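Lay summary. Proteins are chains of building blocks that fold into shapes, and those shapes determine what they do. In this project we predict the shape from the chain. Here is one chain we studied, written as its sequence of building blocks.
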Amino acid sequence: MQNNLLDLYSDYLISQNKYATSTGLSLLLDGHISHDKITRFLNSNNFDSLDLWKYVKPEISKYEETGGVLILDDMIEEKPYTDENEIVAWHFSHAKGRCVKGINILSCLIRYEDKALPIAYEIIHKDRYFSDVKTRKTKRQASITKNEMFRNIVKQAVINRVKFEYILADNWFGAKANMEFIHYDLKHKFIFGIKSNRLVCEINKKGQYQKLNSLKLKDGEAVQVFLNLMPFPVKLTKKIFKNEDGSTGTLFLVTNDLTIDADRIYEVYQKRWRIEEFHKSVKQNASLSKSPTKVICSQKNHIFASIIAFCKLEFLKWKTNLNHFALKYKLIIAANQKAFQELQKLKNQDLCA
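And here is the predicted shape, written in a compact code that computers can read:
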């Protein structure tokens, strides 16, 4: 019964366009399942990353191949009007350049060619209180850091024997501990963005460290360097790109694969963009941000169901060749047509009366 309710609820998250509520799903089903039963379902389960892996593993096994990439990044599901708790807390948003209130989720996707699926996720729990020295205000912090979660997720992917060639992440995760863990403990390859203020030393200039942004590196050039306090060399490349507004930006990438050239580094790293598409679609097409629930358990289970809904959209995409937004638009048109037909019936009844 629980699996049936999960299937119904995740379908509902795709179909509905406003707030996702137990009452809304019950009404959609003409009351065949009470809203109390749906509420109990959301409040009595503890779905997690393991359940997601069990769900997607059969599909991944059909498409896994060499050349896959493991992509990790985090997103914030904003909850400005929801009461603060362990998971609804204040987090710094790099997109907005300020702190926002919401749920911070670390996600992991596996991508083979054009097929990509989430295989793991972790919700950041700010479960400890501390006193800010400057403001003397009590604030929350997580007992398990995001970088620790990052390493745990990657390790679990290796334990699960997920096939991939590179691990991709942006500069937020380009920490020394992450790179050393992947290089030494897991013996895998990574391509990370790194910040322009990192200290680097060219191979032939031992001990002469300088800030990355002061290094005379041409666009598209790759050189071997040492990052400060890193015991092994990495290959560094610089890429200058144009933003949508016409401005230019600079991207620095490093990899522990010393055999590939700059073009290949950038080509592989571009595959990371699929996790940005995941963030956008799970929010807009799978109702991630549309649950008014205030209980931690139901909030977490709603997140899980939204990720399952994303997977369903991805399966439909492979079947129909329509992207998630086109699929959602198709459903909206069908719903509007049904509403229009119902309106005509009501009007005709009024004329007959």
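What the prediction tells us: The mean pLDDT is 93.
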